[in-house]
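Teaching note: in complex prediction, the entire set of molecules is handled at once rather than each chain in isolation. The prompt given to students was simply: 'Predict the structure of this complex.' The entities are:
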Amino acid sequence: MMKTGFRKVLLIMPSVIVARGLEAALAEHGEFRVEGILADLSHASEARLRNMDVDVIIIDPVVFDYVSRASGRARLAEHSSAAVVALKTIPMEDEQIRQYDGVVSMYDDPVAVVKKLRESLASHEDTPESDGYDLSSREKEILVCVAKGMLNKEIADFYNISIHTVITHRKNITRKTGIKTVAGLTVYALLNNLIDPSSVEL
Amino acid sequence: MTTEIQRIVFSESMKLADLVDVNFKLLNVLSRLGISLGFGENTIREVCQRQGINLESFLLICSIYTYDDYVPSAELLSSADPLTIVDYLHSSHAFYLDKEFASLEKNIKAMVEPCDDMQKKIVSKFVADYKLQVEKHFAYEEMTVFPYVRALKEGKMMEGYSIEQFEENHSNIDETLGDLKNIVMKYLPDTCDTVLRNEVLYRIYRLDEDLAKHTIIEDRVLIPIVNRMEA
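The expected output is the structure of the full assembly:
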């Protein structure tokens, strides 16, 4: 990674006030500079994310819905290799927090935020690349749909992708987990907290 | 698995005790055929005669059970008795449902004891669903295939059914068992005791192997025999 005097930061958060506040707070210190702000993770935003070379992403996890929140970090990893820090605006379960390289609070003072961003970057640089056996965020999303009993066609329509793509994802899920049946995938999803138990018939 | 050097062609003059020494997993086969232990120095021929078991069928089942690549000769297939094969398959079904699944469920229950209620529930539901799936699969054979073979043996032809349909209906129940294996090995919470997990895994591996042999006996023995009878 190039050290150009400051680290590039991308903010992904729906609140403009919070984003501008963070941007101003970081600007005072100079070490981190906000290079872009995304309000959501729509397909357009994902495309911008891919084309943006930033060192740290600060994300408010509310941009993910309940289902994908637990795998939010992995979804970002598909588009960017930056360190990802969560901005805690809502209560988060430990499970959700652990996926991030760091967490900052709305009530941290700017010095604490800068420190945490530094630590997060350092810990992120120590983490090896995924070995290719962990499910990607999209695979987790598809897995959740399968576990809920959706058919390939329904999943394809829901994500606006082709049935062929859905099948490829399902093959990869089976390759990675070794689990072949829908019932087995449902158990996997529940044991890994990917779905809310109330959303499936037990 | 048995290596080439140890490979022994089972013959009627072999002592039954030696047969078990070659492949101890044949103990399952003996009990399913109604042969109890305590057979002393009796040979395969003597025991089969005493129990009224067709000798060729017995040798076929034991060979398939022991050697993965065993291909029965046409001669053996034509002298084997389809009723012995059907009896064997039928008692295997009873063994799986009454003994094997009961033990599996018991072991699984002990294994998931430290889990939370939701986890216990999802695992036991998965196992219960698997059992239902297997019962359904067996029921089709018990209600449709076996009566058909018995009728055919008595010289009656049953309209609108042939063993070909059995081959088509032969659904795969091994995928679900494979999933159970992966779940127990890879995805249960750490709170589950490793020794108890191992017990469940050993049971799954043995059951999987046994069911695979069961399927081979259906596919390579029963179906060819019935095909000959239909011709």
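Point out the following to students. The two ends of chain A are 49 Å apart (CA to CA). Chain A has a mean pLDDT of 85.
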